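Run: sequence + coenzyme A -> complex structure.
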Amino acid sequence: MKYARLTGSGSYLPDKVLTNHDLESMVDTSHEWIMARTGISERRIAADDEFTCDLAEKASREALHVAGVSPGQVDLIVVATTTPDQVFPSTACLLQQRLGIRGCPAFDVQAVCAGFIFALDVANRFIRTQGARCALVVGAETFSRIIDWTDRGTCILFGDGGGAVVLQDDDRPGIHSTHLHSDGAYKDLLCVPTGVSRNYEAVKSGTAYTTMAGNDVFRWAVTAMSALVDETLEANGIGRDDVDWLIPHQANVRIINAVGKRTGFPADRVIVTVNHHGNTSAASVPLALDESIRNGKIRTGDTVLMEGFGGGFTWGSALLTL
Ligand code: COA
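>> structure
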């Protein structure tokens, strides 16, 4: 059986920076409050004429370049997004057309902030069963479009961005294991309660916004992501010292610190990038991974435990050696 190896990564953040000081003029908040409660200092916002597929395309082209793979070699495209350009076709099909790829399966995965891990799991299974040899896996979001910019409880947290990886088949791992979970019993704690089939009026009037029970989500995120670390280590028969880097979902520095503390990961082995791009939902993990590879923190041969947590709830992890 083949393994899936990560051979390239890329990411993209829109040019427009929205700082905490900018937010002070939009809602009743302060830079100090946001820093103390979230650790986020700024986030990026897509231009009016910039869409999720644009972010996905930029990240994907970079990942393909790093992998030394031409678009024609890609035989699977999976895009994780909660904010697709259109109802249909999928953002993956739009991306496929942009990249000039024809015929291979391309589809979206919707697991909100855990979406990239879910997409990675799907692509890993394709490669392991030899249904694909070269997969492009993307997390991209224009989350700013589903944020109520008058709600200080949510607007301080989120931003836009895209991240992508190329997975190729290999005789060595690669991805060692993936672990996915969902529980719809918590559907109301973090959601956009309107959509296409239900209350489409809100979508048409531009008021389909994210709502969140912040404290409950915080607690759940810490509990679920801590348990995922244990589950992943146990499944692979390894200890935390066998893992070089932990990349938790980039939602809030306090959540990341709490997960590090609970699982015994020292802070210098936990990746934090949320401070300068906010919570970019499905893009958060590939953004953090790509930035850490580019700045030389994460190197070839390192073992990385990545994990996501999002609305649904959905949560999942992946253990891989680069
Ligand atoms: N600026 C200033 N004050 C704010 C504020 C803001 N942006 N947002 C809330 N407050 C106020 C509240 O109104 C409350 O005031 P009160 O005590 O007078 O009622 C006070 O600050 C404390 O609110 P609370 O909600 O308890 O704060 P918190 O420490 O839990 O932080 C979040 C709020 C949203 C930052 C935090 O709950 C969180 O990060 N939750 C998880 C969010 C997340 O990561 N979601 C995505 C997961 S995928």
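>> summary
The chain has a mean pLDDT of 97. The pocket of coenzyme A is lined by residues 29, 33, 37-38, 113, 152-153, 156-157, 212, 214-215, 217-218, 221, 251-252, 255, 279, 309-310 (CB under 6 Å).
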